[in-house]
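Batch manifest, entry 17 of 40.
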Amino acid sequence: MAFAYASRASKGARSYQEDTAEVQAEGAAALTAVLADGMGGHAGGALASGLACQIFLHAYAASAGSVPERLDAALDLANAAIAECVVERPALSGMGCTLVGAAFGSAGVDWVSVGDSPLFLVRAGKLEVLNEDHSLAPQLDRLAQAGEISWEAARSDPRRHYLRAALTGTEIDMVDRSRRELEPGDLVILASDGIHTLSQADILRVVAGAAPGGPEAVADAVLAAVEAAGDTFQDNTTVVVVEIKA
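Output type: structure tokens
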């Protein structure tokens, strides 16, 4: 199994970029990707996401053990680096980031994630969200499903994007870890939550139309679709698209 990838980022309607994404390939048969969405203002958010991605990739490459153990170690060290930065620069207190890290190899993809940056699998004309969403959105949707609030209220609730977990240098409240076997032709997409301007049906349609052009075409098409949606308050949007080849 081999992997090809592309990464793209857009500021959206913001004047600054708080997302960071980095990819480290080990030949064509192994690849590690990490994406973080910063919070804490312009300087703090950008610093947190950049630092977390840098430390995560370095720690994963330098660690030993199973893939899940290495992902956990990398996550812990990325979180510790944010804590150390805040100690050195107290004015940045409150900075943090979401993070989704994925290791691709012969066994498929293993991931670890904290926050609401989604990890998608596109296979055979279907789109699946692989990781858990650590925002309030799932809880609001469950209330709507149970009939306790309306779907309109759930989708318009201003608390919908509040995070229940993030890397802030303190204890991490929620971590999602798992593995999925992959097949040739699969596309795996790491994204920041700016992509939620598009519905899952929209994402699938855009990805399916661009997939013959490879991961570069898919990444370009997704960001073009987000821009075309014309959200006045469009958040930063970053994607890493990984194509699984035979």
